[in-house]
Q: What sequence folds into this?
């Protein structure tokens, strides 16, 4: 079998599914931590060293880029960029991952492409942040404050009239304020959508019912399969095309008036919850598309 590196630090359920899907197509998935890869910029080197691979593979599948210091994260993304410069196909690309792990850049790209997304403000000044919060909340527009980097609803807070800011605020958000207008999907019936997009096509979708306004599966949301077609799928596809990404999970919410908004785009999405309500094999769909990209 041809060996294919799958970058991840925690293969788990998703790694097992990918390994099985690659094996069905005659490839052996080898799990590698991108932390153990490095640049070797000498005359007798290929430029990037991937443990377990004497020569560079034709492509790599990115299942995880772990967090770390700013320097560590940049170095890990440099590995992806270097592989692409050397002719290795990277699924998803370093550029796409950069654009989606940074919520500010995601919001900017969506806004510039006129894709429906909540009004958003990003600033360093606590004074500016407090002015925005005071103005919006006084106009009965609750806000959501999020860490710029993060996933699965961790660190997300709702700011409403009468709420106090976390103290010290700088420690909570690392001195950067990402503020987004709260989209109310219905008090007591909170829900949103996760749409899975591969190569610009929405292949599956689910409705997530949360016990609070945060609807992540990791926080206990219940999943229900829905059609990926129509307005929902079209919005997710437009968001994925704007980001220029091979595959992603697009989080979408519908407000009380029926309008859809893109909340986030996940470049390394989990799909265990989605798979639990689907007949389509998501891992196989990913692997098959990855192999198409190789040719």
A:
């Amino acid at each position: 079998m041809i060996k294919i590196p799958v970058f991840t630090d925690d293969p788990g359920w998703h790694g097992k599914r990918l390994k099985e899907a690659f094996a069905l197509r005659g490839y052996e998935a080898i799990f590698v931590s991108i932390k153990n890869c490095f640049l070797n910029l000498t005359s007798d080197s290929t430029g990037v060293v991937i443990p377990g691979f004497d020569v560079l593979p034709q492509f790599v599948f990115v299942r995880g880029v772990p967090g770390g210091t700013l320097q560590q994260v940049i170095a890990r993304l440099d590995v992806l960029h270097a592989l692409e410069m050397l002719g290795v196909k990277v699924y998803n690309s370093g550029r796409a991952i950069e654009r989606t792990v940074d919520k500010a850049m995601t919001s900017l790209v969506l806004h510039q492409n006129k894709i429906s997304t909540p009004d958003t403000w990003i600033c360093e000044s606590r004074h500016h942040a407090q002015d925005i919060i005071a103005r919006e909340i006084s106009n009965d527009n609750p806000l959501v404050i999020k860490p710029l980097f993060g996933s699965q609803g961790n660190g997300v807070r709702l700011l409403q009239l009468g709420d106090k800011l976390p103290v010290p605020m700088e420690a909570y958000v690392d001195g950067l304020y990402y503020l987004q207008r709260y989209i109310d999907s219905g008090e007591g019936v909170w829900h949103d959508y996760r749409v899975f997009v591969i190569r610009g096509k929405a292949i599956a979708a689910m409705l997530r019912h949360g016990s609070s306004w945060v609807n992540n599966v990791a926080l206990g949301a219940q999943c229900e399969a829905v059609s990926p077609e129509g307005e929902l799928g079209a919005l997710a596809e437009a968001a994925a095309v704007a980001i220029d990404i091979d595959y992603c999970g697009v989080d979408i919410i519908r407000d009380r008036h029926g309008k859809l908004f893109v909340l986030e785009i996940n470049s390394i999405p989990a799909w265990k919850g989605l798979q639990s309500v689907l007949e389509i094999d998501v891992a196989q769909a990913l692997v098959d598309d990855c192999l198409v990209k190789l040719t």
The chain has a mean pLDDT of 89. The domain at 2-91 is CATH 3.40.50.20 (Rossmann fold).
